[in-house]
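Subject: two folds for Thursday's group meeting

Dear M.,

Sorry for the delay on this. The cluster queue was jammed most of the week, so I only got both jobs back this morning. I'm pasting them in the order they finished. Each block is the input sequence followed by the predicted structure tokens. Could you check whether the formatting survives your parser before we put anything on slides? The first protein is the one we discussed after the seminar.
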Amino acid sequence: MNWVQIPLGPLQTNAYILSNKEKDCVIFDPGSEGDKVNQYIQKEKLNPLAILLTHAHFDHIGGVDDVRKKWCIPVYIHEEEKDWLTNPELNGSTFFLTGGITAKPADHLLKGDQTLTIQDFTFSVYETPGHSPGSVSFYHKESQAVFSGDALFAGSIGRTDLRGGNHEQLIKSIHEKLLTLPEETIVLSGHGPETSIEKEMEQNPFLNGF
């Protein structure tokens, strides 16, 4: 399995594309510039299977419809944020942008910690709320990587001052769901560089003393 990080839009939100040797792929958080994502897929001759959303803040969903329409693929999101895709007030775009950002409703709703299998891709899906109420992280054991959205960053954690944010809940999510993963797990965050569970356990100042 191979993954690539594609920073998108003014906030440089990280979209990720995870692909296998057969050229099938899944797409995480196409936050804007859907054409840029589509161009990469075409260039690499990939076969998209699905869009997986770690959460529905505006900077993570702006390119969803462009990518979904191009490849006719389903979108997955946690049920707590099923209405956020269509509502600019819920996804935060009315507060940060001149025009609201929306996407069509998701095709599949996630609930609870679960195993999600999409053809040859199998993920452990963990509820990791705190940054937003429906935040989830997708752990892909084969790649030794977790797509954590805006829960955990290199040396930092997600902000909790937006709708439904809760600092204590986020810290609990990180400790109980993410830091229990193997230490060598690569953390692929919604913004910034990759990191690892081991590095964040040792160096992240927001997690010390919990």
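Second protein, same layout:
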Amino acid sequence: MTMLEWVLQLALLLMLGAAIPFALRLERALREIRADRSALEGSAQGLSEAARMAEAAMVRLRASAELAGRQVAERTATAEPLRDDLRYLVERAEALADRLEGLVRAGRPIANETPRPAEPVPLQSQAERDLLRAITLGARAAR
């Protein structure tokens, strides 16, 4: 072997020696990547399972919201006639209260002049009679 061959082989040997630490570092990095890859795959499976569970929960939530909406609509439909009835009763009660107030005002000057028992005012309906009875019982209880 000639000197040139020896020099070339020595240079090749030095380069191979210098490449060994790089190869070891590369092998360790590849091992870590493989470990991270399995962890990533596990995370991806967990993420897909969480997405499926979230979709199922969203479907259940949507069904619950629709059911609640239907129940509210039914109750609202039931309450509207009651509201109308109450509005009618309040209007009648206000009219009766105004009428009763007028009768009381008209009766005060008479009561101040001559004390005598009050004559029952002829009432038109059972509601008016009940209202007058409730007012007189309330006035007696207040004394």
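Two things I noticed about the second structure. Residues 21-114+123-142 form one domain. The two ends are 138 Å apart (CA to CA).

Cheers,
T.
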